[in-house]
Write a structure and sequence with these properties.
The protein is built from 7 helices and 12 strands. By secondary structure, the chain is of the alpha/beta class. The structure holds cytidine-5'-monophosphate.
C-alpha cells in the first residue's frame, strides 16, 4: 500500500512529569531541543516525504525557528490541543489531498532510527489499518492499588510495549478520530482498534525511549553521545 508517508510529529504536550518548567519539546539535549532531534529522526527516513509538526499555540514561531536552525525542513508547524488526540486531529487537518499515509511520531521519542521509521511505514500493506513498533514487556507485571498493595501478578505473555511512529492510511486515521471517543486512549492505534481496524506490530527498538522523567534525559544524552562516537 505505502511507498512513503507524511510524518506528523506531535510536540504539544506540557511534559509535566519532566518537571523542568519548559515545554518538553524544547528541553535541550546535546545542544538541541528534543523537538529537533525527533524531527530529524523522522525526516531522515527514506520513506518520509515531508513533515507536519504540532506544538502548543504559543510555541509555533519558536518551533519553526528551532527546526530551521537544526536544518530540518517542515511543510507546516500547527497548533495542537489540550490532549494528545486533539493535537493529532489538528495535524491531520493540515495534511493535503495527496497525503495517503501518515506516520504519527511523538517528539518525546528523539532516538527512533531512520531504519525503524522506514520499516514501520513499509509494513503498512493490505489488510492492515495500522502498524506500530513494539517490544515484548520484559519486567514482571503487578496489578496494585494506589497504596502499593499488590492485588495480583499479571501474565506478561503476549504483552507488548508500543512505541511510535504509528503508521496509518490517512483516511483510516481521520475516520477513526471522527467516529471514536478518544478520551482516556493514549495512542492512535487504540482508536483504530476501537474502530474495528486490523492493527499490526513490528519489532521496535530498545533505544527508541520515550522521555517522560528527568532520568530519561540523561539516557538520551548518553545514547546520542554514543551514536556521535559511532558506538550505536
Ligand atoms: O505526555 P506524553 O509524553 O504521553 O505525550 C506524548 C507525545 O504527545 C509528546 O510528544 C507530546 O508532546 C505529545 N502531546 C501533544 N499534545 C498534547 C499532549 C501530548 O502533542 N496535548
Amino acid at each position: 500500500m505505502s511507498g512513503a508517508a507524511l510524518g506528523l510529529l506531535v510536540a504539544a504536550g506540557a511534559g509535566e512529569r519532566l518537571g523542568v518548567g519548559v515545554a518538553k519539546a524544547f528541553v535541550e539535549v546535546a545542544g538541541q531541543p528534543l523537538l529537533a532531534h525527533a524531527a530529524r529522526a523522522l525526516a531522515s527516513a527514506e520513506r518520509i516525504d515531508a513533515l507536519v509538526v504540532v506544538v502548543a499555540g504559543e510555541d509555533v514561531e519558536r518551533a519553526g525557528k528551532a527546526l530551521a536552525e537544526a536544518g530540518v525542513q517542515v511543510r507546516a508547524v500547527v497548533q495542537g490541543g489540550v490532549e494528545r488526540h486533539e493535537s493529532v486531529a489538528r495535524g491531520l487537518e493540515a495534511l493535503g489531498a495527496d497525503d495517503s499515509v501518515v506516520a504519527v511520531h511523538d517528539a518525546a521519542r528523539p532516538l527512533a532510527t531512520s531504519a525503524l521509521v522506514s520499516r514501520t511505514v513499509g509494513a503498512l500493506v493490505d489488510p492492515w489499518a495500522a502498524v506500530a513498533p513494539a517490544l515484548p514487556v520484559v519486567d514482571t507485571l503487578k496489578l496494585a492499588d494506589d497504596a502499593g498493595r499488590v492485588i495480583r501478578t499479571v501474565d506478561r505473555r503476549g504483552v507488548w510495549a508500543v512505541q511510535t511512529p504509528q503508521v496509518f492510511p490517512v483516511d483510516v486515521l481521520r475516520s477513526a478520530h471522527a467516529r471514536i471517543d478518544a478520551r482516556g486512549l493514549t495512542d492512535d492505534l487504540a482508536l483504530v482498534e476501537r474502530a474495528g481496524g486490523r492493527v499490526r506490530l513490528v519489532e521496535g527498538e530498545h533505544t527508541n525511549v520515550k522521555v517522560t522523567y528527568p532520568d530519561d534525559l540523561e539516557l538520551v544524552a548518553a545514547l546520542l553521545a554514543a551514536r556521535a562516537g559511532g558506538q550505536r
